Every structure is written in structure tokens, then in C-alpha cells.
Amino acid sequence: MIRSAPPTQELLEIAIDVARDAAATAHRMRAEGVSVAATKSTVTDVVTAADRAVERQVLDALRKLRPDDAVLGEEYGAGDTGPVEAGGVRWIVDPIDGTVNYLYGLPYCAVSLAAEVAGEVVVGVVRNVATGEEWTATAGGGAWRDGERLRCSTETDLGQALVATGFGYDPGRRAHQARVVAELIPHVRDIRRMGAAALDLCLAAEGRVDAYYEKGLAAWDQAAGGLVATEAGLRVAGLDGLPAGPDLVIAAPPALFAPLHSRLAALDASGGP
């Protein structure tokens, strides 16, 4: 059965409401105290009870508002939702991006929620759990933070660019990523590693960093933030013409994309474990 896609504005309003409620729950649970509930890929890749509770809250809210939609989440995968029908909507949720920051009480973690239609992300909302900052975007409708239209950095010299990145949890991958950073840092202004991909993409969208790259991102890490970055004028892609994905995500202004891409390709940034 082919269904017509709902209006983007309708999906945006749902995403904002659901993300705000989810962030409020995460904020409350952090104030009440938080501990590790489980680990995933390694002992340092943690899951808190809040991750699970927040994602369950999002799933329940979306099921109530749009019961026929599919959902992909970090903690529950496809959950108990069905496959995406032609013309249908799939929601992509990271309940707490930056879980380690959340665990330690560092104010750099976020709820990330995106809506995808026909394989294209059309709505993205990222809300900082600690500060309440909120970034939104719609495909073709621009990127916004708290009512302000976002434009990416106008920097044209890679040597003057502040570049954000992140590391994976696997020790072998971290070692490879550290080697890449060590070789890259002499060619840029400086490196920032803050620990939440969705927020890194949003900071790049408003020029608070000039560019961002990272290997190992899942769909929920980049869906909403990637749309915010794209709509703010950044080029978001992988290496050698590939789309942004687990091998590598590069988000940079047009003038910086090619030189950053070339440097990362030469350093085998998508390689390693």
C-alpha cells in the first residue's frame, strides 16, 4: 500500500514536542541520579536507565500520535514497529546522544529525533538535555536554533579551521583515530572532541566550530544533526563520493570540504577497525 507522506510541518511539530518531553525526562532523571545499566560494544560504551526510559517514552509517544510509522532507535532498534511502507515515515531516535557526558554530568548531551520519508531525512530536532538549546531543520526549509536562522562558517582556509571530531569505543579504533588526529592537527587551527555527534553537527551548522568529521556514526547519531548541518549550508558526505555513513562523516563549508576531505583521505580516516 502506498501512502502519501504527511506535511513536513506536521512532522516537525510532532518531533519538537516529543523531543522536548524526552529531554525533560532525561534532565529530571539526571537530577535524581544516574548509574550504568549495561554496556554495549565495550565496557566503556555505556547505557544508562535513562537512555532506555527516554527511548521508550519516545516510542510510546510516536505510537500514540502516528501508530502506522516505523521507528529506529539506538536502544531498541526497530522496536515493535513494522517495516516502512512506501510513502511511509520512519522516525530515527537517539534518546541521549553523549551518554558518557550525561553519566558524568557534563552539559553536552542531547535528544536527537529525525523523520525520514522515502529514505530521505526531512525533519530533524536536536535538543541539549542540560541547557535546553534546540536546533531544528526541515528539508529545504533551513536550519534554526531558538528562532534564529543558521548559517555555517565562512572560513576558507583549512589552516584556520576549528575542527570537531569524536572517537569510537573500540580500543583499536581509538588508536587509529588518535593517529589521524595527530597528523591532522598541524594542518588546522585546532581540534575539539566534545563527545556528542548530534551536537557537534549542530555547532558546525552555526559556525561555533568550522567543520566536523567522525568515523563510526550510526543513523541515529547523524540523522537529525546531519540535516541541521546540511540546511545551514555545510556539505555533509563521506569519502570519495560516498554518502555520509559509518565509514566516515565529513561536515564542512563548501570552501573547506575539499581540502579537509583530501587530508582525511590521505590519513586513511575511514580505515582501521
Automatic annotation (TrEMBL):
PROSITE patterns: IMP_1. GO terms for biological process: inositol metabolic process; signal transduction. Mg(2+) binds at residues 74, 94, 96-97, 221. InterPro entries: Inositol_monoP_metal-BS, Inositol_monophosphatase-like. GO terms for molecular function: inositol monophosphate 1-phosphatase activity; metal ion binding. Its cofactor is Mg(2+). Pfam families: Inositol_P (PF00459). The keyword Zinc does not apply. Keywords: Hydrolase, Magnesium, Metal-binding. This is Inositol monophosphatase.
